[in-house]
Amino acid sequence: MAKHWSVPLVVNVLLGIPGVVPFWLLWFLAANGPLAAAGWTTREPTENDGMALWLVIVIPVVTLYGLIWWLANQPLRRRTTLAPHTYWLLSLTAPLLPTAALFLNS
Questions:
Q1: What stretches pass through the bilayer (predicted)?
Q2: Contact at 8 Å (CB) between 8 and 94?
Q3: pLDDT band for position 102 (cuts 50, 70, 90)
Q4: Where do the structural domains in the chain lie, given as residue ranges?
């Protein structure tokens, strides 16, 4: 079925639409945690609840999204003729397109 790059691309871009939420959560966690501690970003001034609450939210959401992404890509990988490194590069970058579009549009 998925002999070329088009089906994996479409599936992964569609997975990227709900993926906006976990990508944003990861960015918010990183920007207010280690990146702010390194001086690369500034902390959100109203974020004073601590990072433990964020981890309780981020870990389940990112894990669920990663599981859905993996379960969608495993059968597609077996049905395509793309080289493994090409397929996984496409599958890792395509879900970022909706987030990038929202970022560029803001």
A1: 7-31, 51-72, 84-104
A2: yes
A3: very high
A4: 6-105
Q: In this structure, are residues 33 and 59 in contact, taking their beta carbons and an 8 Å threshold?
A: no
According to DSSP, residue 55 is labeled: H
CA distances from 33 to 7, 55, 57, 72 (A): 37, 11, 15, 31
Element (H, E) at 65: helix 51-79
pLDDT tens profile 3-58: 577 889 999 999 999 999 999 999 988 888 889 889 998 888 887 777 787 788 99
Sign of CA dihedral 59, 28, 24, 30: negative
pTM for this predicted structure: 0.85
Which of helix, strand or coil describes residue 48?
coil
HSE-CB of 19 using CA atoms within 13 angstroms = 24
* CA triple 15-21-22, angle to 5 deg: 85
